[in-house]
Amino acid sequence: MKLVLVGGGGFRVPQVVEAVGAADAAVRVDEVHLLDPSPERLGVMRSVLDQLAQRLPHPPRVSVGSDLDEGLRGADFVFSAMRVGGTAGRVLDERVALDLGVLGQETVGPGGLSYALRTLPHARHLAERVRAVAPDAWTISFTNPAGVVTEAMRAVLGERVVGICDTPIGLVRKAVRAVGAPPGADVSFDYAGLNHLGWLRSLRVDGEDRLPALLADDDALDAVEEARLLGPDWVRATGALPNEYLYYYSFPREATETLRTATQTRGQVLDAQQGDFYARAAAHPERALETWEQVHAAREAGYMAESRGADEERRAEDVTGGGYQRVALDLMAALVTGRPATMVLDVGNDGALPGLPDDAVVEVPCTVDADGVHPHPVAPLAGDMLGLVQQVKASEQLLLEASLTRSRELAWRAFAAHPLVDSVAVARRLVDGYRTAIPEVGRALD
């Protein structure tokens, strides 16, 4: 089986290869092909993976290249992990917004809209080439912002593209651990929303909904990172466990001030960390894996640091859970083996989540088997939850239309419609600022 990684020179590639080469991997991958426009980054990744292979029980053969059609030929699965503009683009996504007094974050708010604008033309092109060269392949999108990127690719690939994120299933696992569910228990749950904007609304263990008791217990909630981020009183008030990214919607003022006054934004930290990694690994390829592991540990420790106290570190149990690569491998395994798996995925709505268009991409539980991905109908969202989801989806769909028509006016409307942009005038300045600062955004709209 051939797996193609688009963005194959990216920092997280070793995690994917480690997952597919592990002893307990449910499917065997014969070849991993890394596609990337940067020969230098591909060279560094090749060094890391050559050293990683010595540890793996079933290391796949690794090939590299920059020709998209050639790399896609014979693919069974395509992982899209592109980052158009690199980490330097992320710095500008964050900084342009913060300089205008609004939240600057990679996937939430105006930063996410900017990231989408420069990514969507490339995502559509990838989808078109997959359809032409590897029409039987499944495409699994890691590319952020996952909801809007997956929605654009679905217009070309239909149901054979699925967006993934590790935060929803990570939340479920933490909640299961917090309620003390025994190994082997029958667990089911209700989760609904959009990518980086959803809620766990029930957690049944052997038929009993354990979520109400969890929400009432401060000590148990303390074991759930998301509840600590937003506070137990607010979590109880909503009656659901939130995706961690809801911190930015619930506390935008606090998050923006923390980011604005920080010495460096998260993007600047990652840009420096990863720039240092690639430089050191290129200079000393014999220590490439060791260098990657050091930088990866620092990256994980600093995740969403703006939501914690200055001296508060992430707990060990918050970092574990499998990550994107485990979600992707579980999805592959269910599709290949036919053994059904329940997962939370970014898929076409088609009536699964009432109140949103059928063509919208939503994040809901799905059953995956040899026949494909089958979204579960979920209970409707209501009140403030529904309102927030509808407003964000409206912003995303305006942005998709702006990208297709290269319309600055529609882009302005998309930014103005987003709940984290509090002024039409600021929305226009954001669009103009991103067009000026980031060439790929300018090209997408001009």
TrEMBL record:
Mn(2+) binds at C165, H196. The active site is at D166 (proton donor), Y245 (proton acceptor). Pfam families: Glyco_hydro_4, Glyco_hydro_4C. The record marks E106 as: Increases basicity of active site Tyr. Keywords: Cobalt, Glycosidase, Hydrolase, Iron, Manganese, Metal-binding, NAD, Nickel. Substrate binds at R90, N144. Residues 191-421 form the Glycosyl hydrolase family 4 C-terminal domain. PANTHER family: 6-PHOSPHO-BETA-GLUCOSIDASE, 6-PHOSPHO-BETA-GLUCOSIDASE-RELATED. This is 6-phospho-beta-glucosidase. It comes from Pseudokineococcus marinus.
